[in-house]
Amino acid sequence: MSNQTSMIILVWISLLLSACQTQTVPSQVTQQVVSTPATSSTQISDIWRRNLVRWLHVAYSENAQEASFAGITSSKIDHPTLYATYSIVGVYHSLNEPIESASEIADWIVSLQTEDGAFNDPDPLSKYPALLETNWAVATLARLKVQAPQRGKVMAFLRSLQNQDGFFEPDQDIGGNPQAQKLVATFWVIDTLKHLNVDLTKEFYLESTKEALLTYLDSADTNSPSQKDSFSSEFFIAVHTLALLDPHSVPSKLKTLIQEQANTFSLSNNPAAIAIGIDLLNSVNILQLPISDTQRATLRRMVETELYPSIIQEPRKSGRPVEPMLTLLFFQLGRTLDVGYETSGELLKLLKEYRVAGGWSNFLIPQGDPEATAYALFIAREVGYEDYNPQKVGNFLRKFTQPAIAVKNIRDTRFALRGLAYLNQLPNSTAMQELQDNLTDSILAAPKKQSAGLLLEYALLVYEQGWQWPHKLEALTLQILQQNADSKFPRMDLLHQIAILEKVSNTEVVPKKQIAQEIMQLQVPNSGFKSVPNASGADALASLLAVEALRALDIAPLVNRSDIESFVKECKRDYGYDYCYHASPNAGVKNSTFGATYSALRLLHLTK
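The structure assignment produced for this chain is given below.
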C-alpha cells in the first residue's frame, strides 16, 4: 500500500511533524521526599522540593551515550494539553479502565470552548486547527460520558467549513495536497458529529458530502490488479469516512475490495501502517465484513507480541518517550481486533507520571542544551535530586568543550564547563590550557565588530574557571574598556561584563565607583534590580548579575540582604521561581524557568 500522505501526520498526529523526538525521561518519577543536601542554604519545603524533582525529571533526557536537561518552563508539565489528554483518555477507554477525577477533566475541556462553538487549547505547544481540537474535545467528553456544551454551536462551526463540492476544509493548512486536506477534514467533521450523537441521515448538507466521497472512490481504478496493492492512505480514510457517514451507501464492489485488503494486510510498527490498519479494520467492522480467522489471529498476534510490548520497551531502548498519540494508535488497533491487554498496568503507571489537574501534560520535551543542563544540575544539588546519569551528562557537556566546537560558541562552552564543575568532571589542566589558547586565538582573529562581544563573554568564562588572563588579550582589553569609559551603559548585563572584565584583567579603566553607581541606579527600592532603566520591575537574572558584579568590584555591602530575600520570595511559585518583572508577587511572568530558579537560588547563596 502506498504511503503518499502519511495518516500518522494527517489524522492521528496531525501537524506533529517533530513529535517523536530522540529524547526521553526516566521510566519512573522519584516520588519519595529527598533530603536537603548540606550545601543548601535555603529553606525548601517538602512539597516544593517534590515539585522541583518532578520538573527536573521531566526535563531530563537520556539515550545510549548522552544525557541532558532541556530548558522547559514549568507550565509544560504543570498544565494539561488537549493533545495529551485526548490521547490518554482514549487509551483508558480502549482498556475499559476507569479514570480518576473524570469530572475534573471534563470541566477543563468544557472551559476551552470558544464563542463560535469550537474548542481551542491555549497552550503554546498546541497550535492545531480548531477543527482538530474540536474533534479531540468532543471525542474526549464522549468517552467521559459528558455531552459537549452548546451542541448546536459546535455543529454550526463544523458546517461552516463545508465547501460547495461537499467536502470540508480544515480551518488552517495541515500539509499535504489539497485533496488529502479535504479528506482528512471531512473525516474529522464526520467523526465529531458521531461523537455528538448526531443522526447523520437527517443532516441534509451531508448528502453532498456522501456524493463527493463516492465520486472520489469511484475515480480509483479498483479493478486494476496493479492498483489493488497501491491504494494510498487517502483512499482508506475516504472509505472509513463514507462507512461512518452511511454504511449502506458503500458500493458492493468496494466492500469486496476492502474485505480482500483486510485479508492480505500486513502489520508493522510503522505508524502510518498502523493508522491505515485502523481505517481498514474499522471499515470492516462498520460494514460487518468477515475476514478469515487465520488473518485475524495473525494480526492479533502481531499486536500482542510486537506492537504492544514496544510501547514500553522501545522508549527504554531507543531513548524515546511514551508518545501519547502513538500509544493511542496501538490501543485503537488492538480494540478493533479484540486484543486483551492483561499487563497494561505497567503502561498505566507510566501514563500517570504526566497526570496533572485537568488532564495530562505534554510528554514531549525539546532538545537539551548546555545552559539548561548547568542550571538544572545546580538546582538538583539544591533539592537532592540524583535520578540522572552523571557520566552521560558529562559526555553531553564535554562536546562543547572541544576546541573546534568551543570557538564557535563561547557561551555554550562556559555553561558546559560550569555543569562539568558541578559534576566534578572538569577537563585536566592540559586540556583546559589548550582550550584557553584556542579561544584566545579565535578572539584575536575575529572581525572587529565581533571581538568586543567575544571578549566580554570570554571574561565571564575566565572568571568562573579562575583562569589567568592571557597577555595576548591585554591590548584588546584596554581598547574595549576605553570605549566604554566615557559612554553610558545602563544595561545590567553589560555593566556586569565590564565589572568582570576589569576583575579578571586586573585593569581599571572604567572607575569601580562609576560601575557601582550605574548598577545601584537600576535597583528597585527595597527589592531587586532591573535589567534596563525602563523595565517594568526587577527580575531575578538582573539581580544576580548586579550582586555578582558588585562582589567582583568588592562593593557587595551596597546590597541589602533583606531586600534581596524579600524580592526572591515574591518570585517564588509552585514550581521554582519566575523572573518576576513586577514587584507584585501575583503579577509578572507565570512560567517558572530553570534560569530564573537558578538565579534566585544563587542569589540567596551570594547574599548570605
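Interim note for the steering committee: The longest helix spans residues 293-318. The chain has 27 helices and four strands.
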